[in-house]
Amino acid sequence: MSKKPLNIGLVGYGFMGRTHSNAYKRVGDFFDLPYAPVLKAVCGRTADGAKAFAANWGYESIETDWRKLIERKDIDAIDICTPNNTHAEIAIAAAAAGKMILCEKPLAMNLVEGHAMVDAVEKAGVANTVWYNYRRVPAVSLAKELIAAGRLGKVFHYRAQFLQDWTISADLPQGGTGLWRLDAAAAGSGVTGDLLAHCIDTALWLNGDIETVSAMTETFVKERKHSLTGKVEPVKIDDACAFLCRFENGSLGLFESTRYARGHKALYTFEVNGEKASLKWDLHDLHRLQYFDYADDSLIRGWKSIHVTDGDMPYMKHWWVPGLQIGYEHTFVHQVADFLTNTAKGAPTSPTFRDALATQAVCDAVLDSADHHKWEAVVPV
Ligand code: SOE
After folding, report:
1. Relative to the CA of 259, which ligand 1 atom is closest?
2. Range of the domain at 56
3. Comparing C-alpha atoms, which of 49, 46, 56, 43 is closest to residue 12?
4. Domain closes at, from 133, 150, 165
5. What local confidence, expressed as pLDDT, does residue 2 receive?
6. N or C end: fewer C-beta atoms under 10 angstroms in the chain?
7. CA of 20 relative to ligand 1 center, distance in Å
């Protein structure tokens, strides 16, 4: 297939800038695609930092003002990897300039901003996607196929957790590079927007819409020094959040996330229980899907551990040989592969901004519920 260059302009170059850059570089080696991504420019606030990143990852040029990047005629797609409080402004300007947009999660700081972003990309008619990468773990994509094929039957329960422990120390400052996730002004929320958003995105994809939620949140460390101001300031993010919910299909949901689960670095797990079968997945063992089928002969009925590496399993024919697994970074490669394939056909790549707005609506309802101590309806989007 002849490949058209697709010039990428990356805004922000932290952890996510690295995962995305790696994906653009590797995708063409493993997938036969209509476009070849070109690392055209990286934009960061300091020229030295952007230059060092560009040299390391092979970007051709740098910018220190994202507006200049968006104005450039030689940029086709803007990839937003900046803190959450900048997503809306950058995305809306990029859409107005006719650029394709790949935006880090969560879509926005809140539903109001999210709506403005969806309006902007839909009005401009530009290709858009949000990097909820865990959908594209092959085992998670397999879970989607099994549920969509009706193998679980009626779903009764959906359960998810995302546990971390990196903010337990009260000495950890808030704000600034690397620590903006603790600063409500930059992040919007704590674990709800950062971690539960992943769980919610997967849940909506696998199990459909959520109608109502009842949540509680806690901020365990009430004040932290702010890295930028040097002052001790109140902490306004949620350090932990748990919520119950009802899905439109009648199933009950139970979600929990915290950055205070000592011993857990990034333990994302989910389980779905249906009338005919159940499945569960664990990020620490991401290439396996656990599956229980009640139709099995009763003498050998039990949980199967499916090693998701065969060529007929989602995405796996592009990689090694059956039995050899892939990892976290490949989820981003898969998203780029899908984005380029779909975009060439004029088809959307889920989660689109509109899909991600539905996750935003649940996050907003969760935070409102925790504030008001009552059940909240999720605003349909
Ligand atoms: C937070 O520590 C974090 O990096 C999230 O921001 C990511 O979205 C998640 O995938 C891993 O944890």
Report:
1. 2
2. 4-133
3. 43
4. 133
5. 76
6. N
7. 14
